[in-house]
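quick one: S-adenosylmethionine bound model?
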Amino acid sequence: MKPHANFNFIARPYRWLEYLTLGGRLERCRLHFLPHLRDQKKALVLGDGDGRFLAELMAAAPDIHADAIDSSSAMLRLLRRRCASRTLDAAARLETHHIDALAFRPVGPYDLIVTHFFLDCLDEPSLDALVIRIRRSLAPGALWVVSDFRIPSGPMRLPALILVRGLYLAFRILTGLRTNRLPNHAEALSEAGLVRTACHPSFSGMLITELWQLQT
Ligand SMILES: C[S@@+](CC[C@H](N)C(=O)[O-])C[C@H]1O[C@@H](n2cnc3c(N)ncnc32)[C@H](O)[C@@H]1O
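yep, here:
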């Protein structure tokens, strides 16, 4: 397992760095499956950063309670503030955990797991271990939303390799992230008994957002 990165330094400018480099593309990925999540009751949200997705989820799913995990205290501060300003009762429905996701002991049962642009911070053994641990705390039929970068085949393969390399280099410099290749989340989720029920590629196949479901 590689030591985890520190995103405190880039927590505030993170949103603007994202818009400057990739425009609204990541935001569209995060929100793509939101209409499918309105009936969920208990979410585990891993590495949501400044909370842009979680704030929208709490507004869209009025009965949901969420555990938000992040190793960056600055990100969690922004997340709490954003959720509170978006939804009146957010504080009562949200618990934040300042901890490495790999050390967190999930209790559950969760009917929703959210990992937007988070699994790519992990190397493959860490991702496998995380999925196995979370699997035990899933409710029957639980959903898992994943958004991530992707290396497509065909003419966009080289541009995607350059983009992903560049992003990993930037995160290494800014946060100390040691991971340098996209892990295979599909294999880990499939082995844990989840099935991909929907998939939305964008940005010429270089971005993907997927909905997975635990088979009962
Ligand atoms: C690349 S940012 C993604 C933020 C957001 N989910 C998004 O869609 O842009 C990764 C987030 O995960 C957190 N993070 C990275 N590694 C982590 C770990 N091992 N445990 C917990 N949080 C972690 C970072 O602090 C940051 O908030």
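The first helix runs from residue 14 to 22.
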